[in-house]
Amino acid sequence: MDVNIKDIARISGVGISTVSRVINNKGLVSKATREKVLNVVKEYNYIPNSNARNLKTTESKNIALMVKGITNPFFSNMIKEIERQANLRGYPFLIHQVEDGTDEINAAIQLTKEKNLCGIIFMGGTYNHSEEKFKQLTVPFVLTTITSTQEVDPDIFSSVTINELKEAYKATNYLISLGHENIGFLAKSPLLDETTGNRRYLGYKKALEEHNLPYDAQLVEDCEYSPSSGFDAARRLLKRNKGVTAIFAASDTIAIGAAKAVLTAGLSIPDDISIIGFDGIEMAEYFHPSLDTISQPGTEMALSSVGVLFDLISGRSGHQHIVYDAVLLKRGSCKMIKTLKV
Q1: CA-to-CA distance for 150 and 52, rounded, in angstroms?
Q2: Who's near 51: CB < 8 A, 6+ residues apart?
Q3: Exposed, middle or buried, 155 (CB in 10 Å: 0-12/13-18/19+)?
Q4: 301 near 309, Cβ under 8 Å?
C-alpha cells in the first residue's frame, strides 16, 4: 500500500505538520506522539519524498499577530499566551502593531508577502471587512476579540469572541437592577457602526429600552480606551448635571479614569455614583475602590485562537466560531440607590 504524508497523519491521528516535524526531526513533538508517528511510518514502510521534504523545509513557519490597540492592558496577557503557544509549537512569532485608521487586512496581506507567513491572528479592529477582502488572504487566519458582519460567509473565516452586545446589556441591566435610571455610557466611537464601542453601546441601549427607560444622548460620551480620556469624558458628563447616578464604562481603562473624575469632583463611589467597567484587567481590581466589571476570559480566548489557527494550518478542521461568556464581577463600586418597586 502506497501512502503519503497525509495518510500517515490521518492514521496517526495527528496533523501533517506534526508528521513533518517527526520525519525531519525538527520542532517540538512529545515523546509519545513521536513514537506513535514513527511506528506508523515503519508499519506502512513510508519513504518520504525528498523533493517534497525539501519543499516543506523551505516553507515559512512564521505566525503573525496583527494587533490594533496594542496599548490596551486587556490584550497584554492574551499576547503573551499566544506567543507562548506559538513558540511551544516551534513557530517563530511576529507581533505587528496596526495603527488606528489603517486597514488591518491590507496590512496583513502586505506582511504575508514580506515575511512569508503561514498563519495570522487578528486582535482588535473593526467588524466591517468584506468577504472579498477576506478572500485576498492566502494563509489561514483567526479573528480574536472581534468577528465580522453577518453578510460574510462564516465558512471563510474563524473567530474567537464574546457577544459584546449581550455582555454590555448584562452590565447595564445590573445597574438598572440596583435602581439606577440616569446611567452614563463612555466608549470609543459608540455611534460608529461595526466597532466594539458600538456593539457595547447597542447593549446599553437595549437594556434601557427593555426597562422602559428613556435614552438620552447627553448621557453618552465618546472617548479613547485610556484612563486620561475616561477622566475627561466623565468630567464632561458630570458637568452637564444630568443627575447621573451610575456610569457604565466600555473598558476598565475608561472606568479607572471615570472613577478618578468622580472622586476629584468630591463625590463618593458607590454612595453617590456607581461605576462598572468592562474587560476584567488586574489594574481595576487594585484601584480604590475596586471596580465592578464584565470580565472577559482572555487566557481561554488566546488558547482557543491559537488552537483554531493550528487546526487550520494542519488541515485538522475547517473554520470555527467560538463565543465565550464573560462574567460579572462585583467588587463594591456599584450600590443600590433605592428600594425597587414590586
Answers
A1: 40
A2: none
A3: exposed
A4: no
Which position has the grid cell 466623565? 234
Beta-strand pair 117-123/93-98: unpaired
Return the DSSP state at 111: H
| Residue 157 CB neighbour total at 10 angstroms | 22
**Would you say how long the chain is, in residues?**
342
Q: Which three cell numbers stand for residue 2?
A: 502506497
pLDDT, tens digit, for every residue of 88-124? 999 999 999 999 888 899 999 999 988 889 999 999 9
Read off the pLDDT band of 260 (50, 70, 90): very high
CA distances from 15 to 19, 95, 96, 316 (A): 7, 25, 27, 6
- The C-alpha angle with vertex 250 and arms to 249 and 254, in degrees rounded to 5, equals 55
Crossing angle for the helix pair 16-24 and 298-314, to the nearest 10 degrees: 80
**What is the residue whose three cell numbers read 429600552?**
209
Q: Output the 3-class SS for 188-251.
A: CCCCCCCCHHHHHHHHHHHHHHHCCCCCCHHHEEECCCCHHHHHHHHHHHHHCCCCCCEEEECC
**Terminal Cα distance for the chain, rounded:** 76
For residue range 26-82, what is the model confidence (pLDDT) as tens digits?
667 788 888 888 888 878 777 666 444 443 444 568 999 999 988 899 999 999 999
For residues 287 and 256, the answer to whether their CB atoms sit within 8 Å is yes
Spatial contact of 28 and 89, defined as CB atoms under 8 Å apart: yes
Q: What is the dihedral of CA 124, 199, 167, 283, to 10 degrees?
A: 50
- Which grid cell is 73? 492592558
pTM attached to this predicted model? 0.81
CA distance 181 to 103: 38
Residue 9 in this model has a pLDDT that exceeds 80: yes
Side-by-side strand order, sheet with 327-329: 220-222, 183-187, 246-249, 274-279, 292-295, 327-329
User: Measured at the alpha carbon of residue 31, what is the angle toward residues 29 and 37, in degrees to the nearest 5?
Assistant: 75
314's grid cell: 494542519
